[in-house]
Amino acid sequence: MVAFLTSLPTWELIRFLGLLAYLLLFAGVSLGMLYSMPVWKGKGKAALYKCHSTVTVAGTFCGILHAMILVIDTYMPFSWLEILIPFRAAYKPLWNGIGTLAAYGTLILILTTDLRNRMPHKLWRMIHIGSYPVFLAALIHGLGVGSDTKHPAVYLMYVLSFGIMVLLLIVRLFFGRKRDRAYLAHRG
Ligand code: HEM
To answer: What Rg, from alpha-carbon coordinates, does the chain have?
Structure first.
């Protein structure tokens, strides 16, 4: 079994899963920002929420699998401690440590969303705002550690996804302010 696992092209799989996790997290955070804009109603809103949570969970799963396969990789093997404890890796400790923090961050976001109804809404929101630094951590980790970063298409993917995220954030801040003003006017 171990011989079979180590005979798999694990290094390629690790890189593929890292890129897939990043893209899914990008899509998940973008869908969450779209969902928070007050233009959706009824079934469309429910479908958007379902997409947001499914894509984010899939991204977290791929990110964790991506890190776990490093244990059986023969090209660049990692120990469990190097994966689980941030900045302990012998290879590029800073960039890999940021990857570990991103993985913990995605897990916390998913678990707290599952427990959302059992905690104060303000606390949940504060934690959920953490999805921005978590996404940024995944981006910095991918850019810093990835051997595919030097590929123009992959580099362009990072630049475009970051640009789209900044644009969505600007629109989100605009809608947020409008919503706050409407709320204050309503309260008098
Ligand atoms: C949510 C969590 C994570 C995400 C989204 C993520 C994402 C990525 C991305 C996008 C790449 C670049 C792939 C490439 O250029 O081919 C990558 C590479 C890599 N990541 Fe992660 N990662 C995560 C967690 C981790 C963790 C916890 C570790 C281990 C400490 C780790 C170790 C690595 C390594 C060793 C590489 C390959 C570097 C290379 O190609 O030379 N990642 N990751």
So the answer is: 19
Protein residue whose Cα sits closest to atom 43 of ligand 1: 18
In terms of residues, how long is the chain?
188
pLDDT in tens, 39-70: 888 888 999 999 999 999 999 999 999 999 99
Q: What spacing in Å lies between the alpha carbon of 121 and ligand 1's midpoint?
A: 32
At a CB cut-off of 8 Å and minimum separation 6, what does 57 contact? 110
Ligand 1 mutation target, pool 131, 135, 145, 151, most atoms within 8 A of CB: 145
Per-residue pLDDT reduced to its tens digit, 127-138: 999 999 999 999
Q: Which domain holds residue 80?
A: 2-187
Provide the domain count of the chain.
1
pTM: 0.91
* For helices 131-145 and 93-114, angle between their N-to-C axes, nearest 10 degrees: 150
